[in-house]
Amino acid sequence: MNFRYKSLDQQGKSQDGVIDAINIEVAISALQKRGLSIVTIKPEEEGATLFSNISFFDRISTKDVVILSRQMATLFAAQVSALRIFQLLAMQSEKDVLRRKLKDVADDLQAGDSISGALAKHPDVFSDFYVNMVRAGEESGKLDQTFMYLADHLDRSYAVTSKVETALIYPAFVVLTFIAVMALMLVVVIPKIGAILKDSGTPIPAYTQIVLGLSSFFTSYGWIVLVALVIGGFFVVRYFRTPVGAYEFDEIKLSAPVAKNLYQKLYLSRVADNLNTMIISGIPMVKGLEITSTVVGSLVYEKILKRVVDDVKAGSSVSDTLGRHPEMPGMFVQMAKIGEETGKLGDILKTLSVFYEREVTNEIDGLVSLIEPAMIVLLGVGVGFLMAAVLVPIYSMNAGV
């Protein structure tokens, strides 16, 4: 059990921290043996913050797992026992949820479980890919190298995924801001100006009447539109979370005119990188394909890889099987074929992984350079039309005075 304490050392300096002990008496005794004077000590659960039980504020990110993997690689290389490694990492972890999971892993190891078996009990943190890599490291006796491979792989995956998310956040933010500003204008500003124009008796142009009509509609029925959008959005999201809807959404991402190249290269990069990482760790190709299918992040490519697994088990080569699917580019298939013929498939996959990671970066840079001027034009046209619809009748009214 963890206890959070505040204490003073022999020089009177304040020291705060967390100690793991069976009960509070043992915790106090251990701290006193360190020469510390206890100020306060209590179970960590009592000292938790308001948000500590909310997963959003204490979730385990890919970055946390990357750092954790590098720490484990260093400790295994230093010949520290697995049980001691997880006990140390649990004590040092700053996140409550990660500390609890690492402590559970340490307890399972102490009970006689294997490292991979203990990690497999926490699939929300350690994926099938991660667990199988660790299992291969246990069998080969190279856990330090395995955890370093995992850290490098997760670091690359995190970097590529972050670039994609960042590229999509910017246009989404601009569009939402534009919609909010236009809605505010139509609901708050335009009705007041419309009343002035109607009272003046000045002829109102057709485009101004359209804007006034939209303003009147949103003023009267805007709440209905908002409720309909919320309800519709809820059912759309719910549908896309079903197996059929999720598959259709992945198909949309791979067929959308602007995004298809980006997503295809992102998934190909993951396929190549995952397979390369597992091959150099000694995992058989069929097993590697099975694991990759579950972590590639696309139901379309997951289905393709599962079919490849079935065909390879039936005696086909990996490259020939991949070539039967149009979602796999010819270059990828040909490079895989060369790797099979030369016995250097791992090196070829590493080359493909680096190539597609670079292509993802280029696609993102191209999209950002295209989106920025397109957004400027869209905002200019929208705001310009709205201002013209308002200002032209006002100028006409003043000219007639």
Short description:
It is built from 15 helices and three strands. It has helices at about 25-35, 60-75, 80-90, 95-110, 115-120, 130-140, 145-200, 205-240, 245-255, 260-280, 285-295, 300-315, 320, 330-340, 345-400; strands at about 1-10, 15-20, 35-45. The protein starts with a strand and ends with a helix.
Quote the CATH topology of the largest domain: Receptor-associated Protein
Distance separating the two termini: 83 Å
What proportion strand?
5-15%
Strands ordered across the widest β-sheet: 2-1-3
CATH architecture of the largest domain: Up-down Bundle
In CATH, the homologous superfamily of the largest domain goes by the name Type II secretion system (T2SS), domain F
Tell me, briefly, the overall form: flat
Number of H- or I-type helical stretches: 15
Layout of SSEs?
Layout: E1 2-8, E2 14-20, H1 24-33, E3 37-43, H2 62-77, H3 82-92, H4 96-110, H5 115-120, H6 128-140, H7 143-200, H8 206-240, H9 243-253, H10 260-280, H11 285-295, H12 299-313, H13 318-322, H14 330-342, H15 345-400
Antiparallel strand pairs: 1-2, 1-3
Describe the structure.
- The termini are far apart.
- The protein is flat, with a radius of gyration of 30 Å.
- It has a 3-stranded antiparallel β-sheet, with helices on one face.
- The chain is built from 15 helices and 3 strands.
- Helix 7 (143-200) packs antiparallel against helix 10 and helix 8 (206-240) packs antiparallel against helix 15.
- It has 3 domains: 2-47; 59-155, Receptor-associated Protein (Up-down Bundle); 156-401, Type II secretion system (T2SS), domain F (Receptor-associated Protein, Up-down Bundle), CATH 1.20.81.
- With 401 residues, the protein is mainly alpha-helical.
- The longest helix has 58 residues, at 143-200.
